[in-house]
Write a structure and sequence with these properties.
With 332 residues, the chain is of the alpha/beta class. The chain has helices at 23-31, 64-72, 94-97, 110-114, 120-130, 135-148, 164-176, 194-211, 222-228, 246-252, 295-305, 318-330, and strands at residues 2-16, 35-49, 53-57, 79-84, 100-104, 182-186, 214-218, 231-236, 239-245, 256-263, 277-281, 285-291, 308-312.
Length: 332
């Protein structure tokens, strides 16, 4: 079942051109300002099925946040077709808004803006009434998130007394209490420490999977993409340069295998660059990238000629593959 349908989506902004330095130029700028058009999105087309977990990845200015805001109905598309749950998002129909959620981790959310002096529990009660969430769903989801994120005491503390990371978790819980069918999260882990990031990813993944929800997430943290992006859409300057599964991107865009070798009595006096690219070298371990079709042969040779304690073939870091892809695009 298609939950999100985007066809030929364009978004163009009008941007003022910065005036030249000088008093005369500043005076001219008072009466006439030069403007230019900027294409944030250039003909995007893709579909998302119910239950998919999609990561939208790209450098700053790629169009990620613009896309998420159009899907949430915050921005109008300049042209093209956009349907979410069968609705045109920009119409902002009540039936549509009750079935989605949008959270931007880089900006203060509704709870921080509207309920600064009261505890999150009171804010959650307000959201329950706004979304007309039934009592059973509300209590079940509240208990789920508060317990797994360790928020028992924090939900009774006024928002203004919470840290940035704690407020972020409070906002995320509030965004999910009404059991939205479509979750649009833009940088949800920003401001969280490493432990909190990992816990949030685990809880969010469990929530989405158990309830067969649809998730679109953007993030500059590659662990967010690896853990929550079963499918990856790569954006570059408003265009899609890759759309496929995480497994496919590993298979298609890596021409080498990574071999990690641990030695019992320290690394032997050998030039390992003869096998491939040396990525890392410590007292007892060396990591090399070798050609895919030569990985087995090289591993066998090393096992035969050196005193090896352990040998493994870890996956190439997703960050390396994505960086390579963007590098290829920029050289076209």
């Amino acid at each position: 079942m298609c939950i999100i349908d985007v066809q030929g989506l364009f978004k163009t902004y009008t941007k003022e051109i910065k005036s030249k330095a000088g008093l005369l130029e500043s005076f001219k700028n008072l009466f006439k300002r030069e403007k230019m058009s900027v294409e944030a999105l250039k003909g995007l087309s893709f579909k998302v099925k119910k239950g998919e977990m999609v990561a939208v990845v790209g450098p700053n200015g790629a169009g990620k946040t613009t896309l998420m805001k159009i899907l949430a109905g915050i921005l109008y598309p300049s042209s093209g077709k956009v349907r979410v749950l069968g609705f045109m998002p920009f119409e902002k129909r009540k039936e549509f808004l009750k079935r989605i959620t949008f959270h931007n981790g880089g900006q203060p959310g509704f709870i921080a803006e509207a309920t600064w002096d009261i505890p999150p529990l009171d804010a959650y009660s307000l959201l329950k009434d706004i979304y007309e969430t039934d009592e059973r769903t509300y209590k079940k989801n509240l208990s789920f998130f508060v317990e797994l994120l360790g928020m028992e005491k924090l939900v009774e503390t006024p928002i203004r007394k919470l840290s940035t990371g704690e407020r972020q978790k409070v906002e995320i819980i509030g965004a999910l209490l009404h059991m939205p069918e479509v979750i649009l999260f833009d940088e949800p882990t920003i401001g969280l420490d490493i432990v909190a990031q990992r816990k949030l990813r685990d809880v969010l993944k469990t929530f989405v999977k158990e309830n067969n929800l649809t998730l679109l997430i953007t993030s500059h943290y590659m662990r967010d993409i690896e853990d929550l992006g079963e499918r990856i859409i790569l954006l570059n300057k408003g265009e899609i340069i890759y759309d496929g599964t995480k497994e496919d991107i590993y298979h298609t865009y890596t021409s080498y295998r990574r071999i990690e070798i641990r030695f019992k009595d320290g690394i032997p006096a050998t030039d390992f660059s003869k096998f491939g690219q040396v990525v890392c070298k410590t007292e007892h371990k060396v990591v090399i990238n070798v050609r895919k079709n030569e990985a087995g042969k090289i591993a066998g040779y090393i096992l035969k000629h050196y005193d090896v304690e352990d040998i493994s073939f870890p996956e190439t870091p997703l960050e390396d593959i994505i960086s390579k892809l963007y590098g290829e695009v920029h050289h076209v």
